UniProtKB/TrEMBL annotation:
It comes from Clostridium beijerinckii (Clostridium MP). Keywords: Transducer. The keyword Repeat does not apply. Residues 145-334 form the Methyl-accepting transducer domain. SMART domains: MA. Gene3D superfamilies: Methyl-accepting chemotaxis protein. It holds the Pfam family PocR. It comes from the Bacteria. This is Chemotaxis protein. InterPro entries: MCPsignal_dom, PocR_dom. GO terms for cellular component: membrane. One of its GO terms (biological process) is signal transduction.
Length: 334
């Protein structure tokens, strides 16, 4: 719940109240919505400070009177001039924020006419005070024109509510900047986490690229080996052919060579077919590796762009956060 001390610097209010009371030669005090004082009394009269409020009955009546006057001033939305329980003239200037009474500046402790002896002696009896002393103190109270009190009440009302509205706006700015700062801190934390994750992805992508390059290099080496195998196969084929020719030339003595030559040709044929199949598979692997490499490079470029964008976003968030902190400092400055 909003309190008067939340939106107005009570030290500043005290000084203003003291200066106002002294310049206008009237008493003044500021109370919260319950009638409890939040400032020290300014220029209080003898009858109030030393007599009326010297008794518990007097203190209770004053508090009740303050609260009732504040409520009435709040109801009308303007300063309220009234006669207090002890017979003096007071006024209440309500401090209103967003349609809610949060306090009242009270002033007065004056009279419009000379005090009536019977009234003040009656009050003294109710408070348990010495009647003559109380009446003598009443005669010390200043008699002031009603218009002067009205003007003083209007001034207090205007100043107090200007201060309260300005203080309320500062309070709202402080609350908003606090919320903004918290939100930006969460965003900053999230972007930092994303940046770290993005960097990790980039590193993993680089590792993947390196592995893909290794696979491509191994494929190339396999092709080289297949070249050797092809040469060997051709040589084996030629050996089988030569063996067959030699077997045919020697006739029956070369039958054993014929069998060997056939097996050599079969071996050459199988090797050639195997080499062909391996070459086709290696070709497909190389094509797949090339496609993977292209996709990986594209992903790496995008990831690096994302990392840069995240870092830029994080820098912007930190800058806005610093602005918010400065705004909060300004809002809290007096």
């Amino acid at each position: 719940m909003l309190e008067l001390r939340d939106i107005i610097d009570l030290k500043f209010l005290q000084k203003f109240q003291d200066d106002f009371a002294q310049s206008m030669n009237i008493a003044s005090i500021t109370v919260d919505k319950n009638g409890t004082p939040v400032t020290m009394p300014s220029s209080y009269t003898n009858i109030c400070s030393n007599l009326t409020q010297s008794t518990q009955i007097g203190k209770n009546r004053c508090a009740q009177c303050h609260a009732s006057a504040g409520e009435e001033a709040f109801r009308t939305g303007k300063p309220y001039i009234y006669k207090c329980h002890s017979g003096l003239i007071d006024f209440a200037a309500p401090i209103i924020v967003k349609g809610t009474l949060i306090g009242t500046i009270l002033g007065g402790q004056i009279l419009f006419d000379n005090p009536k002896e019977s009234e003040f002696k009656h009050t003294a009896r109710e408070l348990g005070l010495e009647e003559e002393e109380y009446y003598t103190a009443a005669k010390e109270v200043k008699v002031v024109e009603e218009q002067k009190i009205k003007s003083a009440a209007e001034v207090l009302f205007s100043v107090a509510n200007t201060l309260s509205q300005e203080g309320y706006q500062r309070l709202k700015i402080t609350e908003l900047t606090g919320t903004l700062t918290e939100s930006f801190e969460q965003i900053s934390s999230a972007t930092q986490h994303l940046a770290a994750s993005s960097m990790e992805v980039t590193e993993n992508q680089n590792l993947l690229n390196n592995e893909i390059v290794k696979v491509r290099e191994l494929s190339n080496k396999i092709n080289v080996i297949l070249g050797y195998i092809k040469d060997i196969t051709n040589q084996t084929k030629m050996l089988g052919l030569n063996t067959s020719i030699e077997a045919a030339r020697v006739g029956d003595l070369g039958k054993g060579f014929s069998v060997v030559a056939k097996e050599i040709r079969n071996l050459a044929g199988n090797s050639r077919e195997t080499s062909k199949n391996i070459a086709e598979l290696v070709k497909k692997i190389q094509e797949s590796v090339e496609k993977t490499m292209q996709v990986s490079n594209t992903t790496l470029d995008i990831t690096e762009q994302q990392s840069a964008a995240i870092e830029e976003t994080n820098a912007s968030v930190e800058e806005v956060t610093s602005f918010t902190i400065e705004l909060d400092k300004l809002a809290k400055s007096k």
